[in-house]
Amino acid sequence: MTPQEMEARIVRYGDLRPCRTAFIDAHTPGSNQKENFTIIGGGVSESADQHVHITETPGFNIGAAGQPPKCRNSLHSHRTAEVFFVLSGRWRFFWGRWGTAGEVVLEQGDIINIPTGIFRGFENIGTDYGMIMAVLGGDDAGGGVIWAPQVIEDARDHGLVLGENGKLYDTKAGQSLPEGVKPMPVLTEEQLKAFPEPAAAEVIPGHVARYWDLMGLAGRKPAKVIGPDAKLRDRPGFEVDFITRGSIPEDMYSVADHEVLMPVRGHWRLSWEGGTTALNPGDTVAVPPGLAHSLIPAMTGEASMYRVRSTDDPAGPTRTDG
């Protein structure tokens, strides 16, 4: 693979193109300053303005959310796995019908595997602009977002209507639902009973891993973060490992599945049969199956990254039973 071909498979942090109208809460006060990024795969954006950096999906999607302080992402649910790790900032994740069932605060490098079937939201509670990186299960990311009823109602009050076709229409910009397209129906009270309300004590132990705990787990081998025999035991359609300076894989290796590399801290050197390049925090690399490659830190100091690999497991529910 030539350097040019590999560069087309790398999305640099500085080249990320944000969408500020990606979801139904784009006009809602408190959520109207967030930026959404679709890095690999189409994700779950509801806006035609969303730029997709790499369209080919490896069995999962990669995205990101950037938000200034006190900005939140409204309560929603997914049918497949949604995993976040904090690239920068300090974030509060909360869940439940009204966002009051439980919460957890994550710092840089921490990772959360949010259970499917529950309403969840998140906000930047730090003092600076923050970024979280996301892995969504499935090639089609589960077919979209399920919004809590109050989110749809609040959005309508601020001019945004979500059609049952999954597309947004801005009434303040003169848009209206096309003929034959109805508004996305609001979940009924009976339907809402199907969405669990787990307490923090039920979610955190089996779904949250702290950065410094993973640094300790990553001895001479990468730490297994998400997988059937990992710290967070699950089969969401992909596996996640954590790599540090002391747990670098063998000099040159290849795998039969898709592999995505996402540096958290430090600077890395990626080499393959055909070239070499530098990787920095926030970069995302889609390594194709079968390509022999190697990783080494590019300079002294702390260095860490998450590695995501596709599996044969269906992108099914993320369990709440640990």
UniProtKB/TrEMBL annotation:
- Residue span, Cupin type-2 domain: 69-132
Per UniProt, the keywords (alphabetical) are:
Metal-binding
Q: Which Gene3D superfamilies match?
A: Jelly Rolls
Per the UniProt record, one Pfam family is Cupin_2
Could you list the residue ranges that cross the membrane? none
InterPro entries (UniProt xref) = Cupin_2, GPI/OXD, RmlC-like_jellyroll, RmlC_Cupin_sf
- Quote the protein name from its UniProt record: Cupin
Q: Tell me which species this is from.
A: Marivita lacus
